[in-house]
C-alpha cells in the first residue's frame, strides 16, 4: 500500500525515533509498504517518521542512482552498483573520510534541493528485517543516503545543514510547504 508522506512542519519530523523489537505490529507489511511508497514517490530512501511512525526504521535503494546515471558518471562512486536494504534501530558507530557536497532533496520537503556536506564513510550498527544484528561500513552515494535517512530517525532534516542565510532565503518556500501550498507528485500529509 502506498502511504502518504508527512510534509515539512509536522512535529514527527523533529522527534527522535524509538527503538523497536521483533514483535512490532505488522513490521513486514510496514517495510513492504515503505518500499512501495518510496518507489511510487521516486525516492531513493524513506524513513519511518516520513510516514508518521516515530520508530528507528528506514529503507534505502542506492542501486537506482547507478542504474539511471549517465555514461560519463559510471565508476565515479566507490559504492557502485549500490545497496537496497532496510535498517532497524540503526546507530552510527563512526563517520570517516572527507566531507563532500552533493545536491540533496527530501520527499517531505518537495521542490527544494540544496548542496549538503557529509562525510564519505559511515559505519553503522543495526538489525535487518529479521532482527539479525550487523555492523557494516558504507561509502559514497550509499553512505550519503543512509546519513540523510538516519537524520530523519534523529529528528533532523537536510536543511539543518544549510547556512543561516540560505535557510532564510528558503523560509518562504518552507512556510508554503508547511501550509500545504506546495504540491508533489505523491500524496502528502500537511501539518494542521
Automatic annotation (TrEMBL):
Ranges annotated as spanning the membrane: none
EC number: 3.5.1.88
Cofactors (names): Fe(2+)
Superkingdom of source: Bacteria
BP-aspect Gene Ontology terms: translation
One MF term in the entry's GO annotations: metal ion binding
Short name of one Pfam family: Pep_deformylase
Active-site residues annotated for this sequence: 149
Reactions accelerated catalytically: N-terminal N-formyl-L-methionyl-[peptide] + H2O = N-terminal L-methionyl-[peptide] + formate
Co-factor binding comment: Binds 1 Fe(2+) ion.
Keywords recorded for this protein, A-Z: Hydrolase, Iron, Metal-binding, Protein biosynthesis
Top enzyme class: hydrolase
Protein residues bound to Fe cation: 106, 148, 152
Cited HAMAP family: Pep_deformylase (MF_00163)
Biological function: Removes the formyl group from the N-terminal Met of newly synthesized proteins. Requires at least a dipeptide for an efficient rate of reaction. N-terminal L-methionine is a prerequisite for activity but the enzyme has broad specificity at other positions.
Protein family membership: Belongs to the polypeptide deformylase family.
Name of the protein this chain belongs to: Peptide deformylase
Organism: Niastella yeongjuensis
Highest classification ranks of the organism: Bacteria, Pseudomonadati, Bacteroidota, Chitinophagia, Chitinophagales
Gene name tied to this protein: def
Amino acid at each position: 500500500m502506498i502511504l502518504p508522506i508527512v510534509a515539512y512542519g509536522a512535529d514527527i519530523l523533529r522527534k527522535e525515533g524509538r527503538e523497536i523489537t521483533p514483535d512490532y505490529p505488522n513490521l513486514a507489511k510496514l517495510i513492504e509498504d515503505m518500499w512501495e511508497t518510496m518507489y511510487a514517490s521516486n525516492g531513493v530512501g524513506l524513513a519511518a517518521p516520513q510516514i508518521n511512525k516515530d520508530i528507528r526504521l528506514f529503507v534505502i535503494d542506492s542501486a537506482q542512482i547507478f542504474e539511471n546515471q549517465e555514461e560519463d558518471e559510471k565508476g565515479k562512486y566507490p559504492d557502485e552498483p549500490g545497496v537496497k536494504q532496510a535498517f532497524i534501530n540503526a546507530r552510527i558507530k563512526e563517520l570517516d573520510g572527507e566531507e563532500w557536497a552533493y545536491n540533496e532533496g527530501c520527499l517531505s520537503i518537495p521542490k527544494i534541493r540544496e548542496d549538503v556536506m557529509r562525510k564519505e564513510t559511515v559505519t553503522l550498527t543495526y538489525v535487518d528485517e529479521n532482527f539479525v544484528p550487523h555492523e557494516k561500513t558504507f561509502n559514497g552515494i550509499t553512505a550519503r543516503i543512509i546519513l540523510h535517512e538516519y537524520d530523519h530517525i534523529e529528528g533532523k532534516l537536510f536543511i539543518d545543514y544549510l547556512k543561516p542565510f540560505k535557510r532564510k532565503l528558503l523560509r518562504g518556500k518552507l512556510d508554503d510547504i508547511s501550509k500545504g501550498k506546495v504540491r508533489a507528485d505523491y500524496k502528502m500529509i500537511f501539518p494542521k
